[in-house]
């Protein structure tokens, strides 16, 4: 079984800025390219951090209300300093949380979840930027056609990994939801089959109707 990897899903042409790029230039790039964040690169193209729309909005959030109706927010010292920054190095969220091109979608998704980030700069072995991958990129695995998911389950999960004749299990896939029906050689296989099917890229849910084909049943079938 093979999960799709970050290198297949990432955007290779990345809009980026340097540490001394100004506030307005960053805002212009975000609007011009219809993106929500840009990585900040050093002189060797290694990511130092990212500047997002949220980082830029700190400037607005820290402003006093001209009408005097709203209290000025009591920001932590670090956030207060960032709200007053005028260049990328002061505005950015750092350090940059990065991925590698050979990572699977599972590895990238888990890092995004644990670090609570929406995108990951992708770096090569030397730490230089080669792309960027976002949540929406990872979600593209769920756009796989049902026929492709069914074929992977039959050829990879059943035949290659478990050594089960795929014709003994009826595999149906609709909108990423897998239904398995059939009889297996021993009782422990059903849970394994379902678990492996859940790991196939693009699978949303798995429903199993897999019975244990007992020796007695097998003998009866042979006799018939």
**Beta-strand residue percentage:** 15-25%
Low-confidence segments: 215-221
Main sheet attributes: strand count, strand direction, barrel closure: 3 strands, mixed
Judged by helices, strands and strand pairing, the structural class is alpha+beta
Q: What is the tally of beta strands?
A: 7
Give the neighbour order of strands across the main sheet.
5-6-7
Gap from first CA to last CA:
37 Å
Total helical segments: 10
Radius of gyration: 25 Å
Written as H for each helix and E for each strand, in order along the chain, the element string is HHEEHHHHEEHHEEHEH
Average pLDDT for all residues: 87
Task: Describe the global form.
Answer: elongated
Helix content: 25-40%
Q: Mind explaining what this structure looks like?
A:
This protein has 224 residues and is α+β, with helices and mostly antiparallel strands. Helix content is 38%, strand content 20%. The protein contains ten helices and seven strands. Strands 5-6-7 form a three-stranded mixed sheet. Helix 3 packs across helix 4 (77-83). The longest helix has 16 residues, at 146-161. It is elongated.
